[in-house]
Design a protein that fits this description.
about 375 residues; alpha+beta; nine-stranded antiparallel sheet; six-stranded antiparallel sheet; about 20% helix; globular; binds 1-hydroxynaphthalene-2-carboxylic acid
């Protein structure tokens, strides 16, 4: 019996594997296997797809539903026993389960804390960042810098920094979306973890010293020690300022046909991403915005910061409203629509673009047919 390797007709060209297996070859493959070896031509087409082939599926989590799960987790599990009381978001496919990935090499979860609770101090090689969905009185401490947190703020926990968080006793239940590069760190076999020698860090700096030193008006402080870390010194990006920046941009610019008005959470000292491995954006879709489709390498996880609309992702429609979370896997066509004819909508998102850029593989393609719009499968 012979088996032909060619499945995709595009592979029937010189430069692709086109070997027809023979009984002699089958015996040879067996001999190779005994020697921890194999015939490359049997796997070549599979490991060199013509274009990226993601195993992840677009997935949406409804906030109303997942919020209820977070509140149940609060009832069922003590914060100090969980370490971090996080409901993990898993992709609607069997991809990435081994790495607890939501999409590509990204992790995401929803962390829930009750007033008076803490997440004990620890550090890891993985970087984290968080988008605050609700709560009052929440704070984090990063390498001794205390930072207060409010709804729709975006906060960094850069790699290797000690961090603990909590909610003041007089505060309200706090629910955050966490994003981490932990699947990537474990894939690269570079992940270290340590616990602090006390439940919480002593605050060695004034409350909000970093955002108040580096976070405003395009100014940079003089006369204090130069910031020498490879991540943004701003640490927290406040919702009011982010929203106003996007509205100001909208006053003077039409924005992108794909993303509306979009701004990067930048390291103001470099203009680059705030963290080394993960990036984040906030985008504003004007009332009635109907974005065109594009696709790119890299994975994106969205959180609806405000408004309601839908996204077509890989031809499938996902309707969203405030704090719903959804993901767009690598090289998947996507386009966003704001269903309100008048009111703006805001999408927060985080991504692995810094990794794509560092490796020289950040690639984008515009959807050319059908006036730039996918045909909806539903
Ligand atoms: C982590 O350190 C936190 O510090 C949250 O709040 C979620 C998920 C995986 C690995 C580390 C936190 C995490 C995490």
């Amino acid at each position: 019996m012979t088996t032909k390797a060619i499945i995709d007709p595009r592979d029937d060209v010189l430069g692709r594997s086109r070997v027809t297996d023979t009984p002699e070859l089958e015996i040879f493959y067996g001999e190779l296997a005994k020697r921890n070896a194999g015939a490359f031509w049997k796997r070549a087409n599979a490991i060199e797809p013509w274009e990226p082939e993601t195993r992840y599926r677009p997935t949406l989590w409804r906030y109303a539903d997942m919020r209820a799960m977070c509140l149940r987790a609060i009832e069922l599990v003590k914060a100090e026993e969980a370490g971090r009381r996080v409901v993990t978001l898993l992709n609607d496919s069997d991809a990435g389960r081994e790495h607890t990935a939501v999409c590509g090499w990204l992790f995401s979860g929803m962390q829930a804390m009750r007033p008076g609770e803490i997440t004990p101090a620890h550090k890891h090689t993985a970087s984290a960042h968080r988008f605050i969905m609700e709560g009052k009185g929440a704070y984090t401490v990063v390498d001794g810098h205390p930072i207060t947190l409010g709804a729709n703020d975006y906060v960094l926990t850069p790699n290797g920094c000690w961090h603990d968080h909590g909610v003041d006793a007089e505060g309200e239940v706090s629910i955050w979306q966490d994003g981490l590069d932990i699947p990537l760190m474990n894939c690269l076999e570079t992940n270290f973890y340590a616990v602090y020698d006390a439940p919480v860090q002593a605050a060695t700096f004034p409350v909000n010293d970093l955002p108040q030193s580096y976070g405003g008006a395009g100014l940079r402080p003089e006369g204090i020690a130069a910031w020498d870390k490879p991540y943004s010194p701003v640490m927290v990006y406040r919702w009011d300022a982010v929203r106003d920046a996007l509205r100001n941009l909208a006053d003077v610019s039409e924005g992108s046909p794909f993303d509306g008005h979009m701004m990067r959470y930048a390291n103001p000292l470099t203009g680059g991403w705030a963290l080394q491995t993960m990036g984040a954006h906030m985008q504003r879709l004007p009332g009635g915005f109907c974005g065109k489709a594009h696709r790119h390498t890299g994975n994106v996880v969205y959180n609806v910061a405000g408004g309601h609309g839908y996204s077509l992702i890989g031809g499938q429609r996902f309707d969203w409203q405030r704090h719903d979370i959804f993901c767009v896997p690598a090289w998947t066509w996507h386009e966003h629509v704001n269903l309100d004819p008048v009111d703006e909508a805001f999408l927060f998102s985080f991504n692995d673009f810094p990794v794509m850029e560092a490796l020289g593989v950040r690639i984008e393609e515009v959807f050319a047919d059908n006036d730039g719009h996918q045909i909806c499968a539903l």
